[in-house]
Amino acid sequence: MVSLRCKMVVKRELEKMKLKHLVVELGEVEVTKDPSASQLKQLKTALLKSGLELMDDKRAILVERIKNIIVEMVHYTDEPPEMNFSDILSEKLNHNYGYLAKLFSEVKGTTIEHFIIMHKIERVKELIIYDELNLSEIAVKLNYSSVSHLSAQFKKITGLTPTFFKSLKHNRRKVLENL
User: Fold this and answer.
1) What is the rounded distance in angstroms from the CA atom of residue 73 to the CA atom of residue 142?
2) Does residue 126 fall inside a structural domain?
3) pTM of the full predicted structure?
4) Is 170 exposed, middle or buried (0-12, 13-18, 19+ CB in 10 A)?
5) Read out DSSP for 49-72?
6) For the chain, which residues score pLDDT lower than 50?
7) What are the pLDDT digits (tens) for 21-62?
8) In a domain, 171, yes or no
9) Which residue segment(s) compose the domain that 13 sits in?
10) In a domain, 29, yes or no
11) Beta strands 28-31 and 21-25: pairing type?
C-alpha cells in the first residue's frame, strides 16, 4: 500500500469481513486475531479486485517495507533526512543494510540506490511542475549535494535538463491556454 486510498480500501475490506484491525499502515496490517484460511482467501480476492495484493512471503513483505520507507521519505517528508538512507533503513527494519540491499536486488531486479534515485527524480519533476521552489531549494529539500549533482542525475535519468523540463511545462501550458 502506498497511499491513503489503499489504506482505506484495506480497512473497508477488513470491516466487511468483520476482521478487527489494530493497525493499517502502508504495507502492513495487524489484526486482533489470525484470520482463517478461507478469510485470507476472501481478503486476497477482494484486494486483487482493487488492484492490491496480499503478501505473506516474509522476503516480499520486507521489500515492500523498504519501498514504503523510501516512498515516505522522498515524497511525503518535507525535511531532508538527518541520516543517509542506508542507516535509516537499517534502523527502521532492524536488519543489516547489506542484507536489505541484497534482498531488494534479488526480489526487485534493481538496487535500492536506483530505486531511491528514480523516486527522487519523480519528486524533482513534481516540484518543478509545482513551480514553488527553485532548483537550489529542490536540491536542498531532496538532500542533493549541489544543484549540479541534481541536474546531472536528472539528465541521466530523463535525458533532459531540469531547465528544459521546466520549459516544456510552460510551453504545454501556453498551448492549453490558447485552446
Assistant:
1) 9
2) yes
3) 0.71
4) exposed
5) HTT------HHHHHHHHHHHHHHH
6) 1, 173-179
7) 888 876 678 888 888 888 888 988 988 888 887 776 788 889
8) yes
9) 1-54
10) yes
11) antiparallel
